[in-house]
Design a protein that fits this description.
heterodimer; A: 106 residues; mainly beta; 46% strand; B: 119 residues; 4-stranded antiparallel β-sheet; 11 strands; 0% helix
Chain lengths: 106, 119
């Protein structure tokens, strides 16, 4: 079965840029989405189709996807960005989530 | 405003059954694929099942095949998950979510409902 691998944790200082990776076999041939989940809340879509932001998501959030790796980049990080982030892709007709990355704003 | 509201969760003994419901409003339910995603305590998201707009296609994660059944009632804008032969490892918060074809992503999520399988 298809797997997506994320680092368990990423830490940055406020105002710095955070990069969260998601690795999977030929992931670049698929579309990747990213979801933010704050503690005690439901997931929220922050990036879809590799690079696009839904309305209401700050421009600080950006994405890329090439080869075997998709990357979520959050620039000028703020305390409110502290959350778990999950990548997601489709494998045939099934859905695959990465294991999640806890972003800590130091 | 789009709303997805799950119900039907609770405490059930191993081997028991439970039926989750998800009431949708604020969008044309019958035009969307729908999905169930679960999250065990302290763990990550796990996709459980998908259902096509007209219910003609359904897909499941291997761990629930033969035990869980996803269904929908478009007339009542409702999504369901019938869970049988429940195991301790099915303990999780269950979310329903809508799949937006133009985004190729899950754009709206419910608040989640807790299912606890324990004796």
């Amino acid at each position: 079965s298809y797997e997506l691998t994320q680092p368990p944790s990423v830490s940055v200082s406020p105002g710095q840029t955070a990069s969260i990776t998601c690795s999977g076999d030929k992931l670049g041939d698929k579309y990747a989405s990213w979801y933010q989940q704050r503690p005690g809340q439901s997931p929220v879509l922050v990036i879809y189709q590799d690079t696009k932001r839904p309305s209401g998501i700050p421009e600080r959030f950006s994405g890329s996807n090439s080869g075997n790796t998709a990357t979520l980049t959050i620039s000028e990080t703020q305390a409110m960005d502290e959350a778990d982030y999950y990548c997601q892709a489709w494998d045939s007709s099934t859905v695959v989530f990465g294991g999640g990355t806890k972003l800590t704003i130091l | 405003e789009v709303q997805l509201v799950e119900s039907g969760g609770g405490l059930v003994q191993p081997g028991g059954s439970l039926r989750l419901s998800c009431a949708a409003s604020g969008f044309t339910f019958s035009s969307y694929w729908m999905t169930w995603v679960r999250q065990a305590p302290g763990k990550g998201l796990e996709w459980v099942a998908n259902i096509k707009q007209d219910g003609s296609e359904k897909y499941y994660v291997d761990s629930v095949k033969g035990r869980f059944t996803i269904s929908r009632d478009n007339a009542k804008s409702s999504l369901f998950l019938q869970m049988n032969s429940l195991r301790a490892e099915d303990t999780a918060v269950y979310y329903c979510a809508s799949y937006e074809n133009s985004l190729l992503a899950f754009d709206y999520w419910g608040q989640g409902i807790l299912v606890t399988v324990s004796s």
